[in-house]
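thought: fold this chain, then report.
action: predict
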Amino acid sequence: MPTTPRGPALDREILRLAVPALGALVAEPLFLLTDSAVVGTLGVRPLAALGVAATVLGTLVGLCVFLAYATTAAVARRTGAGDPVGALRQGLDGVWLAIGLGLLLLVALEATAPDLVHWLGASAQVQQFAVTYLRVSALGLPAMLVVLAATGVLRGRQDTRTPLVVAVTAAAANLALCLLFVLGLGFGVAGSAWATVTAQTGAALVYGLLLVRAARSLGAPLRPDRAGVRRSASASVPLFVRTVALRAVFVTATAVAARIGDAELAAYQVSMQTWYLLALAMDALAIAGQAIVGRQLGAGDAAAARATTRRLVGWSVAAGVVLGALLLAVRPAFVLLFTGDPTVRALLSSALVLVALHQLVAGPVFVLDGVLIGAGDGRYLAWAQLVTYLTFLPAALLVLLVDGGLVALWVALAEFMLVRLAVLAWRARGDRWLVTGALR
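observation:
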């Protein structure tokens, strides 16, 4: 039985994976935050349109986040069980699945973009900008999904440094291209979308080269294995359901903000992207939990997995306090970066106070979610997330009925996070998720 790491040794292992993962995760929402800052110079309606389009695109990509999460858990377990070739083959099956799904989503989004934007309830002027952004962005969907799956392969192999380098490089390229296309060449909202498509395609190509090199060094076949791809798809179903329910919360919240008003929608776009930025920053600990706990359970060490979980929760509470305080401190200057409209600024300033308070709960939620994903506890996560959405829906509808405004919407989102914490903590206290060995 492997020795359970304790104290400083466990902290070093967490930091070795979490610190690079932090940089990579923060780089991802910077795509949209930099887009928001640049597009915000074009006016309130283009910025509001970006909020609608980002919700649709984020939902489609977010629904496929199982490509990263399930691949991380599966590869980590096989790595812990001493099967590096099998781990890489399972990861490559996930990449092939990503390519197929990306092509299907590209076609679907091109056909349905106007209907999706209309359903979210934006004004006619905002809808025009949003459809333009979505139809260009659809071209990058296959690359975005390949990036997800390939990142999961590397994380499962206990490598979070390479995704950091790729993500930071892609984010820098996106910023430079966005400035060029939107402000330099005057492409407007479409220029922002083209910048992201170009940067994501470059990242996907880099990951492809890295995986080809790894496969050749281990003697693993590169061609898709139908049975393996089917297994990857089947194993991902519970995480897909979990993600559908999770994304439904944010789609519902966007629809509520859109029906309140254009200024509220614009402020919600920036505040939600800020929430994502902080969420993914703390999600670095969840990524470390997925990789470490998956490896430990694959090696048969349930005691180590529980010790790692306790340590990660402690780290997450401290991180939530620090990030929340930091956001409150920079809030006055931060608001000025995104819009010159005084109404939007006032709404955004109030919303960011709630975003900061969210961080006290968000840290433990993300860590426990990541640990259970690493443990392969997808079925429970699916049912738990469905329950939390059903508690959020009436709260969101109440915001519209009483004309509660943007602050009330963020209060409803806080209620959602508290329920999510409760159902995850209850599961983590038990033993049913501590299943050892390489899952098949």
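thought: worth noting. The radius of gyration is 21 Å.
final: tokens above.
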